[in-house]
Design goal:
The chain is built from 10 helices and 14 strands. 34% of the residues lie in helices and 30% in strands.
Length: 311
């Protein structure tokens, strides 16, 4: 399959909004190249980025989306420009240069991931291992075999890593988990490996659903994790002990009204993908929907929020 890579250089403040535009228009994958994050990873000693130099210009973030080269491509690209104009009308100029386009194959995408994605310890016990690498696990390791393909989620971004550290604290054997916007399925797999009895992983994107199913199968967890295409919680039934949403602030705010009624007693909602500047907005929306924030983790300008239902 042929894909068109669409890249926009933008500010840190507008990164989330640009990514949201791409997601809303059906991008098969969205990548955020944040120079501040790259510099942090280079100095952390936890990710092999030896071939990537230190980023000198840390003010420009590159947000890249991948759209299928099909009959809907022209309308999607036109909509990108319309939405970007609307963003700049709201928050002011936030683009550097013109929107860039490049046609690539699915094989090109996979090979680009393999250059920069290596075995990484994310938490005390969780290790992310690309399917194409070898790793000798330690006795207490929970190794996630992962091939992100065209879906978001390798575990190396702050939002995913913080979610995993929270899951390590809150997941107990036998729990039911809903993972909204599962992407590569990485958080669902982590929850299952930490002891969840049943996980429902949902994504609106067909490519993400396909990739997540493959990753679940590679980790021999198909009997625990059910992957389905759906919009937010619409593909789920009943209640969960833990609901995860590693998306973006605006979508989380849209989701909040449904959360209290879908959590079991003492259930937990983990909201991630939120830039620090939106913490107050999400906190206020949570309060208005009968939820209270009991913990907030921050890293690299991103936050993860742990919420419970007001009793």
């Amino acid at each position: 399959m042929q894909w068109v890579e669409v890249s926009i250089q933008t500010t840190h403040a507008a990164t989330e909004a640009v990514a949201d535009v791409f997601h809303s228009l059906g991008a098969g994958g969205v990548v955020i190249e944040d120079p501040l994050l790259l510099n942090t990873l280079r100095t952390s000693g936890t990710w092999e980025l030896c071939d990537i130099p230190e980023q000198e210009n840390t003010e420009i973030v590159v947000v890249t989306a991948y759209f299928p080269d099909d009959s809907e491509l022209h309308d999607r690209l036109a909509a990108v420009e319309e939405e970007m104009t609307a963003i700049e009308e709201r928050i002011g100029s936030c683009r550097f240069g013109n929107t860039c386009f490049r046609t690539i194959s699915e094989t090109d995408w996979e090979n680009e991931w393999k250059q920069f994605f290596h075995t990484t310890r994310i938490t005390e016990h969780i290790v992310i291992k690309p399917t194409w690498e070898e790793y000798e696990a330690e006795p207490d390791d929970k190794v996630i075999e992962l091939d992100p393909g065209m879906a978001f989620g390798t575990g190396t971004h702050h939002t995913t890593g913080m979610c995993m550290r929270r899951l390590e604290k809150v997941i107990e054997p036998g729990m039911t988990v809903f993972d909204v916007g599962t992407g590569s399925g990485i958080l669902s797999i982590a929850a299952a490996k930490l002891g969840a009895k049943y996980v429902k992983a949902i994504d609106i994107d067909e490519t993400a659903v396909k990739v997540a199913r493959e990753n679940v199968a590679n980790n021999k967890l198909s009997s625990v994790i059910e992957v389905a295409k759906g919009d937010l919680l619409h593909a789920t039934e009943g209640k969960a002990d833990v609901i995860i949403a590693n998306i973006i602030a605006d979508i989380i705010i849209m989701l909040l009204p449904d959360i209290p009624g879908r959590l079991n007693k003492d259930g937990i909602f983990l909201a991630s993908g939120i830039i620090s500047d939106r913490l107050e907005d999400v906190t206020e929306a949570a309060k208005n929907n009968g939820l209270y924030v009991e913990a907030v983790d921050t890293q690299g300008g991103w936050v993860v929020m742990q919420m419970r239902r007001e009793e």
